[in-house]
Amino acid sequence: MPIHAPSMTQAILGHGLLPECRSRSLFKDRFADPQANDHTEPTRKEWFSALLSKPAETIPASNWHPDTAGYVHARLMSRLMLNMAGGVMENTGLMLDRFGLPVIPGSAVKGCARRMALQALHDWVESQIEKGSAVRPAEDDACALCCKDFATPAEMLAAIARIFGWVDQDWDAGKNRDPQTRVETTWKSDFYWACAGGSQATGSALVAKIIAEARINLGNLSAHKSFAGTFAFLTASSNADPHLELDIVTPHHTKYHQGEPGYENAPDTEDPVPVYFPTVAPQADGHYFTFPIIPLRLAQAGDLDHAKGWLAFGLNLLGIGAKTNAGYGWFEVDDRIASRLADEKKQRQEAAAAAALTPSPELIETFATMPEQQLAGILNAYSFDSKLWPRDRTPLFELTLLDFVLCSAPQLRQTKKGAKAIELLAAKYKRALP
Hints:
The protein is of the alpha+beta class. The chain has helices at 7-13, 24-30, 44-52, 88-91, 106-131, 153-164, 190-194, 204-217, 254-257, 303-317, 335-356, 361-369, 372-380, 395-408, 416-428; strands at residues 70-76, 103-104, 175-177, 184-186, 231-233, 236-238, 244-249, 275-280, 289-295, 331-333. Strands 1, 2, 5, 6, 9 and 10 form a 6-stranded antiparallel sheet that branches. It has a two-stranded antiparallel ribbon with strand order 3-4. A two-stranded antiparallel ribbon has the order 7-8. α5 (106-131) crosses α10 (303-317) and α12 (361-369) packs across α14. The radius of gyration is 31 Å and the shape is flat. It starts with 6 loop residues before the first helix and ends in a 6-residue tail after the last helix. The mean pLDDT is 84.
């Protein structure tokens, strides 16, 4: 398997498997050979092993999302495969950003959430067809919580259409005419399937009623033949490199599938042919993917919670990427991650606000008129754990007190409590002590 690169490039990068090429993304996209197999030099397995040995670049975290953005945080619990539409060698079964970190495209994220919502609606309508129009999803149904905020299936279908969008055919159960045979075949859109598709004669009227009511619930939006949806599902990325692992699939009847003479009955005389491909490894504890969802101009109140909920259930129950039926692409959504990140964000905001504070001249004058014993009493209240600090005093008061003592009353630092209080206040407000 020759590496296709100019001789000067090969010389700089070390020849062979280019050991000096430290970019995982560049190596994957530029130096793959679709013709590689176990008989080339280096072999397909060796090339993939070289790819897996290259770490991703460390990129400082940045968040450019608007304040209205919502997030789902989930830990990858099994191997993940993406970008498998073409040959394994050309795509390598991965989607990496320019820094070599595995990412999940927004189209796959949106598809996962939409599939979960439609599956939940399908189960609800099917139960109504079987048991009556007043039936709610059973409590032991894994999809029941996806429907809990809706009074009727039509209301839920309208929310699905509004959030994810549609094309004109989504509202139809029409007919396709084969251009060669001219035979008409009935097809059903995802919306019709989600409404149980009229598969039972008793359900056809209910399906039509749900779809008609859903279009009424959409109001003026229903006039559009196509609609992109009210949310943008962005590319999901990991907070740390989850690393890559080599996987294998082993076809046992290659010649039979290739139609070679003498192998029409798939005899057990062929040697298995292992095919290697890379995957994203399960994530360690503390690592996770972040799935951003951005409300757009026509988003309605409450829809962000629906979108996040459907995505979370989809990641938990359906998975994402290729071979999900075999257990790949399974995530575990952990609300503790979101809580911890919210606390960290709040701490950063408080630290930034504290760093921008300046002492109040009015409070300095007040402190200057106080007897030393009274001022010492105020200061000593901060010599304990911050959980025990006075709750009726503002950050501006605390910062001004710190500044006044350092500049105008240094003798208060001579006591044990005074010294501890100044140390704790300086740590909170990121001030260096003289």
